[in-house]
Amino acid sequence: MSLALAPRARFLVALLAAVLVASLLAIAPPAADAAVKKPLDIVKVYYDPPGKDHSKNSDYTKEYIQVKNTGKKTLTLTGYTIRDNGPQKFTFPKGTKLKPGKTLTLRSGKGKSSSSTLYWGKSSYIWNNTGDTARLYSNKGKLLESCAYKGGTHKKATKKSVRTTTTTAFC
Ligand SMILES: [Ca+2]
Ligand SMILES: [Ca+2]
Q1: pLDDT for 52 beyond 70
Q2: What's this model's pTM, rounded to 2 decimal places?
Q3: Cβ contact 116:106 at 8 Å
Q4: How far is CA 58 from CA 52, 63, 84, 107, 113, in A?
């Protein structure tokens, strides 16, 4: 009789183990990427558009950084800033608003702003092709996100830098 029960006992042990693993997975912390998501999130830096870098505005404006409102409320970005790893700094103009789920593109160079696109307004590129750090600050100067990248293709993010292609850093 005890021999006949053995397979069932083994099955129960296996079932118990499966339930235990499932419950452990349920309380596992969220993925690193989800953890850094903020109501205002740097999505990507298009740091090196394809082709040679020419010193002209139509090329500067191909380069951009994108931020997204991942929250549920419209954000007013007046006074928020974006900085590179050097002295470059962009201040969001008074009255800049971003609706939930919407993305705002900030292009290097000069151009006419719209509700979805802003321009840094400088006669230069902003984002270094060989690596840089994009930092986003609130209007009170609080660091909201820091996104460091190396140039070239890096298929996996590390603690020090995000995933990149030859054109784009995924923050
Ligand atoms: Ca991000
Ligand atoms: Ca660049």
Answers
A1: yes
A2: 0.78
A3: no
A4: 13, 10, 21, 11, 15
